[in-house]
Structure formats: structure tokens, C-alpha cells
Task: structure prediction
Amino acid sequence: MKNWMNGWNALLSAAAIAVGVAVFPSSPARADEASVPAAAPAQAAERWAKLPEAEKARIRANYAKWKALPEGERQEVRERYRKFRSLPPERRAAIRERYKKFRALPPEQQQRIRERFQQFRKLSPEDRQKRIERWKKRRQDVSAKRQERRQERRQERRQQRQEQRQERRLERLERRRNR
Result:
């Protein structure tokens, strides 16, 4: 997972250098597949000139990482990027949101998640499928339990409202008698 993310950042920076555009995670560009308008080089040079030196250094470092990746890994990153771009916008937004949440986790927790993911990837397809099925079942069970608890709380509230109504009726009756 970490290699893939390094590859991803490197791909973005490689694209930025190749096209001369500063690429930010929210708007990745693809130099190897992009159709660049005639005015793009001038605009790109302008954008590049406006970038802070720290950002330029980060892009250059990521570009160097990209170039250092074996072609097979670069191809894998490109393919994953193509798949990502082919997803509906809502799905891509959901993935980005999950990634932001992941990045907000403490580094130790991120590492545990990466390690578990690597373990999952090493499983045979059959074992992976079994794990997925168990996970789905567990999710359904948790969801069913939540639904059950919600129902119980609703029922309790209904009961409380009925009791309160009954108490108010009795109080009104008592007031009428006392008149």
C-alpha cells in the first residue's frame, strides 16, 4: 500500500514535470495520456513560476521517485489511476473522503491498516472471498443489532409518551373533580 501511494504521488509529480503543471491531489493530471492545448505550456510555465520553492522541491522529489520505480509498478499505478478515473464522481469523492480520514489517523494506526491490507493481499482468492463474506456478514449483524436497538428505543419512547399522556389525563380528571 505504501509503495502504491509513493507511486501515486510520484505519478502526479511526473505528470506535473512533464506537462510543466503543478499537480495537486485534488486535480491530478496525466502527462502520458493528456491532450495538452496549445496554450498549456505557457500557462503551465506561469503556474510553475508561481509555485513556492518547497512545493517545487516536493514535486521534483516525487518525480525522481516515479522515475526510480520499475516500469511494472508504474504501469500498475497508471492502471489503478485509470480505474479510479472511470468510477462515477460520487464514488471517487467517497474514496477521496475515506483516504482523508485514513490520513487523519495516527501513523501507528495507518501502519496497522497497511499491514493488514498486505496480509489480505497475500491470501489466496478463495481465502480473500471468505474474509470478505465474513466481513459482510459481520456488518449485516452489526447493522441488524443497531436496527434492533433503534426499534427498542422507539418502543420505549412510545411507552413513555403513552404513560405521560395517561398521567396528564388523570391530572385533568383530578382537577375537574376538585372544582
